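Input for the complex:
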Amino acid sequence: MLQPSEKIWMDGKFVNWADASVHVLTHSLHYGLAAFEGIRCYKGRKGSAIFRLPEHVDRLFGSAHIAMMQIPYEKKQVADAIVETVRVNRLEACYIRPLVYIGYGAMGLYPGENPIRMAIAAWQWGTYLGDEALTNGIRAKVSSFTRHHVNVAMTRAKISGYYVNSILAKREVKADGYDEAILLDADGYVSEGSGENIFIVRNGQLKTTPLTSILEGITRNSVLQLARERGIPVVEERFTRDAMYVADEVFLTGTAAEIAPVREIDGRRIGTGKPGPLTMDLQKTFFEIVRGEDSSHESWLTRV
Ligand code: PPE
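Predicted:
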């Protein structure tokens, strides 16, 4: 269950959590055209810090631009509002959810002059894929649902409606007792998890899917950067589902999921069946960075 905080930022001002409502004829609620972000704020030695805030704000504006929604604020105003939302709620560690949506006005697919509205909520959110996901790894299953074709969804945008596909996939595999769904693209290659990017490790090489049918993950970008700094060979290249089965390690990355090892896919053990050494090494560094214990990537943190 969602743990309520105190205030939600709505269209430039803070309202009480319980009062943050919209009209039921809000355009986005019917047709799914809205853009959102998922951002984490971590508690660290030097206080709380938001991870890669400018990159998330950029992606939000990019999503809105792709969707032809004009955000009625400057990037700086949005970034400041996000920081302020964490502050007013006195949250040390939290998940932040900015949402840009098409408000009440005309109905019908053509939104015309309907207002573009924006909200920012923040709440405490623990581990996304279960309590032991980060330490023991998760069990994943390839979904029977295909990820959007590149000309159906433009996945550089984080658009609400795209997540119907993710929800269907997630429900399907949860019903079979798995923790997370992996979706294949329209050509049959691996794309991503329902809410995460995917990496495989084989013979010391790290591989992730290219930016065709996937979200351009900010955690993915961070992992690629950390791996390159370590001199680990990295490739962004399509791979098939059986490449996952024979990988030494598989892991998922996302703001909510963080860096989650995958220990089983489709009933097949991955590697030793335990989280792999490279996965855990990257995860350790990631947590040290977000908590400000490793100062090598200070620029990734915005102090609250
Ligand atoms: N792919 C998808 C489809 C996706 O939704 C996410 C984030 C990622 C990759 C990873 O992107 P990034 O967070 O920038 O590393 N999914 C968000 C929503 C999760 C939810 O259930 O809500 C998130 O992790 O915040």
